[in-house]
Write a structure and sequence with these properties.
By secondary structure, this protein is an alpha/beta fold. It has 2 domains: 200 residues, NAD(P)-binding Rossmann-like Domain (Rossmann fold, 3-Layer(aba) Sandwich); 118 residues, UDP-galactose 4-epimerase, domain 1. The protein has 10 helices and 14 strands.
Length: 326
């Protein structure tokens, strides 16, 4: 079996490639390297440089590498940027997916795993978000992920392609320091950056209806997330026509203040956070129910928040040695 991993030179993609190889699966990376890093692709894994908007390039890659399944992670993913550039996001995320699916079905590929997001839910007013929770995305990014799910599901129903849409919650951590996230868009690296600059971490609002007044989120280790892809991919190949929509989280909420306290403990810093006004659109609580994937595929997250922060900090200090404490 050969899996084409689009976006396989990115943060999550590189971990999926690693997990596939460790599971004995053959992987090929397809990435335009706009944000991906070629050095993340391990020796022995072919890298095809190209855009998913290039149907001919995709078709050649599928044929040359005798691809049997696709894991599609390539996408633009910054919420704020999507508000400023909605046309760009719809072109890259929706049209790119359409072109890819057209090539996949023409090539007779049997399985397709789609990287979705908890952003499809918007601001759910529930304790635990299930896959049946109504979707109401609040950004063009979230809209493109929901539209992508619709497109993937419709294609599967029309062609028999086995499909799965994986709705990630808050991803953190690293399998190895060199695979760590290099972006500073999520809470953990944002706090790391503030600590490195000798500045206090920031909390955006502490008057939410939560136990300590700060937002509560569900954090998932990227290693667990990658293994969920492998489990899902294998399930699709063994069940032609299967159609899955699955939350990928731990089912445990952690507040922003709790995360900052743990980051301070792991890093050796003692930097109390400052509180600034709320950011528009931040829901008070978004925590996954991960029961469906546990029941249907037998997958469950293994790593806790301490593991995530420790591994992420190792990656951060590898790139920013001045941040390490003696």
């Amino acid at each position: 079996m050969t899996w084409l991993i689009t976006g396989g030179a990115g943060y999550i993609g590189a971990h999926v490639v690693r997990a596939m190889r460790e599971a004995g699966e053959r992987a090929v990376v397809y990435d335009d390297l706009s944000t991906g890093i070629a050095e993340r692709v391990p020796q022995g894994v072919s890298l095809v440089v190209g855009s998913t908007l290039d149907g001919d390039r995709v078709a050649r890659a599928l044929a040359e590498h005798e691809v049997t399944g696709v894991v599609h992670l390539a996408a633009k993913k910054q919420v704020g940027e999507s508000v400023d550039r909605p046309l760009h996001y719809y072109r890259e995320n929706v049209e790119g997916l359409r072109v890819l699916l057209e090539a996949v079905t023409a090539a007779g590929v049997g399985a397709f795993v789609f990287s979705s997001s908890a952003a499809v839910y918007g601001m759910p007013d529930v304790d635990l978000v299930t896959e049946e929770t109504p979707c109401a995305p609040m950004s063009p990014y979230g809209e493109t992920k929901l539209a992508g799910e619709w497109l993937v599901r419709a294609t599967g129903r029309a062609t028999g392609l086995a499909t799965a849409s994986l709705r990630y919650f808050n991803v953190a951590g690293a399998a190895r320091p060199e695979l760590a996230d290099v972006g500073v868009f999520n809470l953990v690296p944002m706090v790391f950056e503030r600590l490195t600059e000798k500045a206090p971490p920031r909390i955006f609002g502490d008057d939410y209806p939560t136990p300590d007044g700060t937002c509560v989120r569900d954090y998932i280790h990227v290693v667990d997330l990658a293994e969920a892809h492998v489990t899902t991919a294998r399930a699709l190949l063994s069940s032609p026509g299967l159609d899955l929509t699955l939350n990928i989280g731990r089912g445990e909420g952690v507040s922003v203040r709790e995360m900052i306290d743990t980051i301070n403990a792991v890093t050796g810093y003692d930097s109390p956070p400052t509180v600034t006004p709320r950011r528009p659109g931040d829901p008070a609580r978004v925590v996954a129910s991960a029961d469906r994937i546990a029941t249907e595929l037998g997958w469950k997250a293994k790593h806790d928040v301490h593991d995530m922060i420790t591994s992420a900090w190792q990656g951060w200090t590898r790139r920013h040695p001045e941040a390490a404490r003696d």
